[in-house]
Design brief:
The protein is mainly beta and 324 residues long. 9% of the residues lie in helices and 50% in strands.
């Protein structure tokens, strides 16, 4: 049975923590924002990350099948996968409490509604383990020096991310607490911690993806152009990715000095949300054992996109490698 290895989610003070999953230290809601009779509310927020392993059960295993062949110079294949979600997914659990009301109860006093201010909200990010099905196929053919490729896949119950800003919006908070506002206030006045269901940070949706690309080698230069598109089916939530998401990819590779120096530039651009990622790499082999690599990674776009949420993480890097 394959053992599922979960993605590790960084803590909020780590560099690669996604901006779209962060929470503001303070939320100030005006009077009547949650309910007409509820006064202004201030909420102090904390966020923690709890990484955990999925349960080791047989139904957490996976199965993958692939059939490949060649027909009239066309290399093609079809595949099927059923098992754990291959992309990371997380749940956003929130509890609220009234520290001042708790202190009064500990001293033997009875808190009043005015003693509920300020509230404390403790949010926790927990790994979420989904089960998906994927059906796909691809084909490639060489024509006149060009290599043409195409691929397509249907995914069932994929986990797609939202932003915590949507979960913490006034409208979403109102919808979450209004049906039980009386019970919530009563529990807070008793000094209890109250769980609040703000909705899913990652939602399950069916997707269709396709892509097509072409490359050509000219005097040692190998340019690559590819277009990929994802369609999210039956979606009513605001996600970090559009219901139709189109990405253009361009790559150029070239070797110099008898293959000792390899250069590569790869960049892709999201059209609907305008996010960008690119990497430039230079790799020089001094001999068969020792090599040096340098490069630069560029990330850009709105924090409300899958790529743009990491836009503060541009980096230059140097890699030394020694092999005996």
């Amino acid at each position: 049975m394959p053992v599922q290895v979960p993605a590790r989610f960084p803590t909020q003070d780590e560099r690669w923590f996604p901006a779209a999953a962060s929470v503001p230290p303070l939320l100030a809601l005006p009077a009547g924002a949650l309910e007409t009779a509820v006064p202004a509310v201030s909420i102090h927020n904390t966020l923690a990350t709890e990484n955990r392993h999925p349960p080791l059960r047989f139904n957490n295993g996976a199965i993958g099948l692939r059939f490949a062949s060649t027909t009239n110079r066309v290399d093609w294949s079809v595949c099927y996968y059923e098992g754990p979600e291959t992309a990371p997914g997380f749940a956003f659990n929130t509890i609220i409490l009234a520290p001042r009301a708790r202190q009064l109860i500990e001293t033997g006093s009875m808190p009043k509604v005015s003693d509920l201010q300020p509230l404390q909200a403790n949010a926790t990010l927990l790994p979420r383990f989904g089960h998906i099905r994927l059906f796909g196929g691809d084909a490639a053919v060489a024509l006149g020096g060009f290599t043409l490729r195409a691929e397509a896949a249907y995914g069932s119950d994929r986990l797609l991310p939202r932003s915590t800003a949507d979960l913490l919006s006034t409208d979403n908070l109102r919808n979450a607490v209004r049906p039980q506002i009386g019970a919530i206030i009563a529990q807070l006045l008793q000094g209890q911690s109250v769980p609040i269901n703000l909705g899913d940070l990652f939602v399950q949706r069916d997707t269709i993806e396709w892509g097509a690309g072409v490359d050509y080698t000219f005097h040692g230069w190998t340019p690559v152009f590819q277009i990929n598109q994802m369609f999210i089916l039956r979606n009513s939530s605001h996600l970090l990715i559009n219901d139709v998401d189109t990405r253009l990819l361009i790559a150029v590779r070239k070797s110099f000095f008898a293959e000792r120096l390899r250069t590569e530039l790869v960049a892709f651009q999201g059209l609907e949300r305008s996010y960008t990622a690119g990497i430039l790499r230079l790799h020089y082999a001094f001999n068969d054992a020792f090599s040096l690599g340098v490069g630069y990674l560029l990330l850009a776009g709105s924090r409300h996109t899958v790529v743009g949420q990491y836009h503060d993480n541009d980096e230059a890097f140097v890699q030394l490698r020694y092999e005996r």
